[in-house]
Amino acid sequence: MSTARPLNDDEVFNEMKKMVAFIKQEALEKAREIKVK
């Protein structure tokens, strides 16, 4: 976060969506690796 000012609700929501999407992606990759073994 480069901005010092507080985020508004939309920005917070977008950041959370990005984080959730990233975490889901990571989980899918891990699951795929485990299945391959």
What does this protein look like?
The protein has 37 residues and is an all-alpha fold. It has one helix at 9-36. The relative contact order is 0.10. It contains 1 helix and no strands. The chain has one domain. The radius of gyration is 15 Å and the shape is rod-shaped.
In helices, the fraction of residues equals: over 70%
Order of helical and strand elements: H
Discrete helix count: 1
* Whole-angstrom Rg: 15 Å
Number of strands: 0
The low-pLDDT segments are: none
Distance between the termini: 38 Å
User: How many domains in all?
Assistant: 1
Write a compact overview of the structure shown:
The protein is mainly α and 37 residues long. It contains one helix and no strands.
SSE layout:
Blueprint lengths: L8 H28 L1
Structural key phrases:
37 residues; 76% helix; single chain; rod-shaped; mainly alpha
